[in-house]
Amino acid sequence: MPRQVAGYSERLLAVTRVAVNCHQADSAPSIDQTGQESRSASHGAATSLIAMDITIHASFLPHDDPDASLAFYRDTLGFEVRSDVGNGKMRWITVGPAGQPSTSILLAPPAADPGVTDDERRTIAEMMAKGTYGWILLATADLSRTFDKVQAGGAEVVQEPTEQPYGIRDCAFRDPAGNLVRIQELR
Fold first, then answer.
1. Is residue 78, in this structure, part of any structural domain at all?
2. Is residue 80 a part of any domain in this protein?
3. Are the beta carbons of 183 and 139 closer than 8 angstroms?
4. Residue span of the structural domain in which 78 resides
5. DSSP string covering the chain, please?
6. Phi then psi for 149, rounded to 5 degrees?
7. For 71, how many CA atoms within 13 A lie in the half-sphere containing its CB?
8. Overall domain count for the chain
9. At 96, which CATH number?
């Protein structure tokens, strides 16, 4: 069962009420064809949106061997190490592509949160062992060259460069923790 953060439901409800109130200014609730109440003025697109300046700053991937993960992301993929804090297996390592200081990957111990139960820790360990817990999608202009370099670095190959039926060319590896690392070619 998902854990609830104290006050989260109340804050979500308050934000939802504000959003609904902003869009129903002069409209009365109506019943749609599914029998559900609709409070929207119309079923069309929103007439105005507030643009927000939001970027993706960091993605999180678990590690179970910080030194092996560090070697993969730094030495094999060529990422910069931006920080490395903690000790032993309890290290939080931030890496990112050179020349892109505002985009990072945080390599973290998977179950360091004190709120994670022993059953959840076991599930996380099992999923990491199967390679189904974490993944990331990267991109490169030269997929063949990148594939050769990553393969030469000893990474486990999941898929060689392949032209996909949905219009991209990509490949896939597993990092030392079992995370799936897909790399697609920019076109």
1. yes
2. yes
3. yes
4. 58-185
5. -----TTHHHHHHHHHHHHHHHH-TT---EE-TTS-EE--S-SS--S----------EEEEE-S-HHHHHIIIIIIS-PEEEEEEEETTEEEEEEE-TT-TT-EEEEE-TT-STT--HHHHHHHHHHHHHT-S-EEEEEES-HHHHHHHHHHTTPEEEEEEEE-TTS-EEEEEE-TT--EEEEEE--
6. -65, -45
7. 9
8. 1
9. 3.10.180.10
Q: What is the pLDDT of residues 162-173, one digit of tens each?
A: 999 999 999 999
> Which tokens sit at 64?
């179970």
For 80-107, how does the pLDDT look when each residue is reduced to its tens digit (9 = 90+)? 999 999 999 999 999 999 999 999 999 9
Name 181's bridge partners: 136, 173
Pairing verdict, β 135-140 and 180-185: parallel
Whether the full predicted model's pTM is greater than 0.90, yes or no, is no
Specify if 162 maps to a domain.
yes
pLDDT at residue 12, as a whole number: 40
- The tokens describing 126, both together, are 């099992």
Domain assignment of residue 135, yes or no: yes
Section 60-87 average pLDDT: 96
- Residues whose CB is less than 8 angstroms from the CB of residue 78 and which lie 6 or more positions away in sequence, other chains included: 97, 98
Rounded Cα distance, 179 and 182, in Å: 10
79 CB contacts (<8 Å, ≥6 apart)?
73, 95, 96, 97, 98, 105
Give the integer Cα–Cα distance in Å for 9 and 176: 37
The pair of structure tokens assigned to 69 is 């993960």
What confidence score (pLDDT) does residue 26 get? 45
